[in-house]
């Protein structure tokens, strides 16, 4: 009989295993706590959305829509569906569908996997994860600044350093229209320098050409007309408010007039937090204002602004900067010499867990060979990182008690505690949370 072929994960779609997964949980906990302090509320949207949502929302002539989306036809009804490549369009779709702005603006955040069909490399995967914050229904520049401060606060909370904030303004449609005409005229005079992608986008989406990563085009792009120079008084005032608030909070920033972001829905403020420590994948968080997306997706016109960060990149940068991420540990490890004591032991552990104590129970790994020696159990207790060992020996069981032995104070201090009075001593074990 032939050997069954081992199945493995799709390239660029990675398993996240313990203890690595604990770092993800730590980051997510930090985010949840910070979002609550800024009064942002969690939102969860489907992983699969109508393909039209992203074509309409992100722009038909974007790399994401043209090259990177995982799209397919639903076999049941022929509907065109797509695994979400980003979450903002889905959040807006849900806000519109459920008329969430009826009673005023909403501050929302999300976490979850996104999907893009591209070549996997460090910091760029086919299934990747984003955390994002969106403020919908608020037109003021102070909300742009608030979101930037929210991201900046997260870097401080988790200990990230040497992150540069780049700002730009994309103005309003009429300003972009004037810039577009000047940009096309400039690029038409330099057709010999344009690569195939740039030539294809010259008349459909010339602003995207400024976002090229082609080294041969950088000099051309750097000399191109700047959208910033076409901004009117209102757009400049909006941008000035953002800068003034950031300055008042001690947040350093630099103006990058070539910053356009990868989606077509942005207007006015756009920004990126970047690092030089992750090579070509140096953007760890980016976003901006998208005042016209809600109407594009079928809702009543309403302003909005938001950002998304790449979880893998943030964790990779924490590793690169050698920032410590706490390892999860148990408060206690239960040592059980005799399997006959298991009913009593497990009833005791349940009570301790309900009292907030984290307990790992020793279990046999080989059928029919008992619970293992006390020596081997103590080795596992020590390796678990737990502060205490709970010893359920026959003498303790006979007295209706458990011995609590310290594993971390150096002298192995131990004290016997009554099983009938768990509530009075459980708190002495609990150090987590």
Automatic annotation (TrEMBL):
Domain Aminoacyl-transfer RNA synthetases class-II family profile: 27-337
A GO term, aspect molecular function: histidine-tRNA ligase activity
Keyword Protein transport among UniProt keywords: no
Residues where L-histidine binds: 86-88, 116, 130, 134, 261, 265-266
Catalytic reactions of this protein: tRNA(His) + L-histidine + ATP = L-histidyl-tRNA(His) + AMP + diphosphate + H(+)
GO terms for biological process, alphabetical: histidyl-tRNA aminoacylation
A cellular component annotation (GO) from this entry: cytoplasm
Subcellular location: Cytoplasm
Quaternary structure (record): Homodimer.
Similarity comment text for this entry: Belongs to the class-II aminoacyl-tRNA synthetase family.
Protein name: Histidine--tRNA ligase
Native source organism of the sequence: Diaphorobacter aerolatus
Gene designation per UniProt: hisS
